[in-house]
Design goal:
494 residues; alpha/beta; eight-stranded parallel beta sheet; four-stranded antiparallel beta sheet; globular
């Protein structure tokens, strides 16, 4: 990433549409057209994975599988996998937010019907495409599909509660369940085929319009995931495969007690012994899914905050070393272009900065963090160097308008001095100074383009409910906002 560029941060689930949740269908293609019309070059999204029970895209059942809820059912009518009549009797869905329970109840039932239709009447062309998908992806989709089938069979997301021999992946037991659950396993394989068929069609369209897709890679994986079940040696687990230590971050800007994520932490010594195989597979796979990739919690590649399993918060923990330099060096040797971005927010040490700079990776700057100290604050645009991605805020921040409404004291005085008066004018000023900065890339959350308040916030870290719900509506995207984005992008050569 060398030329000046800009883009919009909007996750797929936040798209408008008729299915109660954003999908990989028509509205996503329309959004690409909007980006092209306003001279944007990037569309940043959150992870595409199959979320666990809390619907977080950062806590997924697999580091490789896609989210079935993002499959566009209306597109499937074109391939005769479902009839339009089946889509007419849908429940009422809110336009402003995702009702995940209602969407799952309706959509997953219809995806079962889609699978039955494929098994009974699937065209030869579709069957051939499906077989090719399995040939290319069996290395991950086989274990993932057995995992999902077993999860339903045992009626628990936690594989630690399964039959002991399956939990420990005894070969005879795995074969037994592959036979018992064969149809269910194939259902999950087919759903993944549909997801990636639609994803790559959307990505190809975006690329044809000059839009690059900016993806996101969670550092950790969910404990109740296929990844931990199939790779127990690379995590710090006890003899019964329960986590010994879990991940998080110490007290910071977002939380006085830190953030306790409860993901099992990696055993980097074992990862080294295995020549970084799982991590390299994961990175290469994601760099094919996206044109560039943000590594969330990048500082974990240098060292990570490790907390004893069972602690109630993240205060009592310790830093443990990773092996990020060796990992990235191996990746660099295997790929000509590693388009990675380091999420280097929070308390970052010189060692983390060195790791980022050794591989010439862009870091991140966030305007909402810029007014907590003085004019030397590294998040103020006049202090940027070019190799950074600048944001007004991220998916973990309040909307900028919401933040401006809530600031107090010295921070508020510094904002007034730097941005002037009036919160809406300040927001416009924020976007302009970000676009005019020397940062290589400028990214604007869709909520800030639409000038929305706190109700449109995507995620509040350390809060387990009410997140990932927000959706935008096309009627919010006024001509004035489109024109503003287009004009500043031309004006500041992005």
């Amino acid at each position: 990433m060398t030329e000046r560029k800009s883009g919009i941060l909007l996750h797929i689930t936040s798209m408008p549409g008729e299915e109660g949740i954003g999908t990989l269908g028509g509205d996503a293609f329309r959004f690409v057209d909007f980006l092209k019309e306003t001279n944007q070059k990037l569309w940043q999204i959150l992870p595409l994975g199959h979320p666990g029970d809390n619907n977080s895209p950062y806590q997924c059942y697999s580091a490789f599988a896609g989210n079935p809820l993002l499959i566009d059912l209306y597109n499937l009518t074109k391939e005769s996998l479902i009839a339009r009549e089946d889509l007419r009797n849908k429940p009422w869905f809110p336009e402003k937010y995702v009702d995940f329970a209602k969407v799952k109840g309706w959509k997953l039932t219809l995806l079962r019907k889609v699978f039955d239709n494929f098994k009974n009447n699937g065209t030869q062309k579709l069957q051939d495409e499906y077989k090719l998908f399995l040939k290319k992806n069996n290395w991950w989709v086989k274990d993932f599909s057995l995992f999902m089938a077993a999860k339903d069979h045992f009626k628990t997301a936690n594989w630690l509660e399964w039959e002991n021999n399956l939990k420990h992946r005894k070969k005879d037991t795995i074969k037994k369940y592959e036979n018992i659950l064969s149809r269910e396993i194939e259902y999950h394989k087919f759903i993944q085929f549909l997801f990636f068929k639609q994803w790559f069609k959307l990505k190809e369209y975006a690329n044809s319009k000059g839009i690059k897709i900016f993806g996101d890679l969670p550092f950790y994986v969910l404990g109740e995931s296929a990844d931990v079940w199939t790779n127990t040696k690379i995590f710090q687990l006890d003899e019964n495969l329960y986590p010994l230590r879990v991940g998080g971050v110490p007290p910071d800007y977002f939380s006085e007690t830190g953030q306790l994520w409860n993901n099992p932490v990696y055993d980097w010594q074992e990862i080294k012994k295995q020549k970084f195989e799982w991590w390299l597979l994961r990175l290469r796979y994601n760099l094919k899914l996206f044109d560039c990739l943000r590594i969330d919690h990048f500082r974990g590649l240098e060292s990570f905050w490790s907390v004893s399993a069972g602690e109630k918060n993240a205060i009592k923990g310790k830093w443990e070393s990773s092996a990020g330099f060796e990992l990235l060096k191996k990746l660099e040797q295997q790929m000509d272009d590693i388009s990675l971005i380091a999420e280097d927010l929070g308390k970052i040490t010189p060692e983390v900065e060195n790791l980022r700079d050794d591989f010439k990776l862009p870091g991140m700057k966030v305007l909402q963090f810029a007014f907590t100290t003085d004019e030397k604050n590294k998040h103020l645009p006049h202090n940027y160097s070019h190799r950074f991605v600048g944001y007004t805020g991220t998916h973990d921040n309040n909307t900028t308008l919401g933040w401006l409404h809530n600031i107090k004291g010295r921070e508020k005085r510094l904002v007034k001095k730097y941005l002037g008066k009036g919160n809406k004018r300040r927001l416009i000023r924020c976007i302009e100074i970000l676009w005019s900065s020397c940062a290589e890339t400028a990214i604007l959350p869709m909520q800030d383009l639409l000038m929305l308040g706190s109700k449109a916030r995507m995620n509040t870290p350390a809060i387990n409910s009410g997140n990932w719900l927000w959706r935008f509506r096309w009627n919010q995207l006024k001509t004035k906002r489109r024109k503003f984005l287009e004009e500043i992008t031309i004006k500041y050569n992005r």
